[in-house]
């Protein structure tokens, strides 16, 4: 009986080595250009961040009570400038409050982009 189990172990080891060899050969023969390049998704991160800042600034003005609008905008400004700085961007966010609207001027600069936006949000 000991010889039979020894042959089973040898067969198992030989089969494992052959399977590993086949997978290794296949991995070397596959062209590396057939893999999907996901780096393009991260390429436009500044644009996505800039659009989010714009959308959330509009939402901040729309949902703020008139008495809390200035403090909410100042808190939002400080928050987004800190987040932009942590990501390696330089964000300048100015706002001007009038009786019927809020004017916002944003400039985002990074190594790849320089984005600007000027828009007016009517106050509720």
Structure commentary:
There is one protein chain. This protein is of the alpha+beta class and 124 residues long. Helix content is 56%, strand content 21%. The chain is built from four helices and three strands, in the order ααααβββ. It has a three-stranded antiparallel β-sheet, with helices on one face. Strand 2 and strand 3 form a beta hairpin. Helix 3 (45-63) runs antiparallel to helix 4 (69-86). The N and C termini lie far apart (89 Å). The model has no long low-confidence stretch (mean pLDDT 86).
Summarize the structure.
By secondary structure, the chain is of the alpha+beta class.
Report the biggest beta sheet as strand number plus sense, adding barrel if it closes.
3 strands, antiparallel
Amino-to-carboxy terminus distance: 89 Å
Low-pLDDT runs of 5+ residues are: none
Task: Order the strands across the largest sheet as they lie in space.
Answer: 1-2-3
Overall number of strands = 3
Question: Beta-strand percentage?
Answer: 15-25%
What do the pLDDT scores average to? 86
Structural class by SSE content: alpha+beta
Total number of helices: 4
Shape: elongated
Summarize the amount of helix as a percent range: 55-70%
**Could you spell the SSE succession in H and E letters?**
HHHHEEE
User: Taking Cα atoms only, what radius of gyration do you get, to the nearest Å?
Assistant: 29 Å
